[in-house]
Amino acid sequence: MLVAANLILSFCIYSFLGWLCETVYCSLPKGELVNRGFLSGPFCPVYGFGALLVVYLLRPFARLPVLLFLAAVVLTSALEYATGYLLERLFHTKWWDYSKRALNLHGRVCLRNSLLFGLMASFVVLLLDPAVQRLLLRLPEIFSLLLAAAMVCYFVADTVGTVRGILSLQEHLEKLEALREEIREKTRRYHEEFEQNILERREELAESRQERREQMQARIDALTRQLSGMRLSSRHIHRRLLRAFPGMRSQRHQGGLEQMREALEELRCQRRENQK
Question: Which spans are transmembrane here (predicted)?
């Protein structure tokens, strides 16, 4: 039991450290805190899994630093690629995109990140993991067991909440896309009917044409207001995910996603103006 508990706690430590590195790396250029995590809490599980894989698979190479580094580059790149692929298939969304970076593979991995992950993995195997294991061995056994159980419950709850938030984001984007399509269709029909009335019945339908025009315009205005409201009505987790993954692209509802990004940018600009 203690071995399993220490494994869980190691996963939590590495998930937190991964989240911390990602958050600092992404927050400094923007000058604001960005919760750079898939989950709502301060953890990036992919770093936890990655660190454990690196430690247990690459420990035999600890005495060969160059070979350790090369193996770490391959292993962490494979993990990042597989994670990106699975997330795209599960949620029909591309969470990060390295397509503009040199030597990338399908936008899911790139050489720069792979080299950085290789260095980090080597550091974990050679220096960090031994220190983490010494720390965990100093904890009382009952404390380790209770803390591990609590962390499992936390991760399950956070994962369920995050997945539900992502699914609701997809639903929100679908509604936005449907509204945009309806506006386009209403506008197209409005122009078609207007042109047809001009050609077929100029005088006798002038009054009804005007009434029809006003009705159609009112419907378009109402849809536009509804669209504007939906752009601003996203849940907190939607806004957090958009800030955390600025390169996110929806495979089905990219138009709705861009609408939400524009709305969030407008809100940020308004807040900056209010603070002046």
Answer: 6-25, 37-58, 64-88, 109-128, 143-167
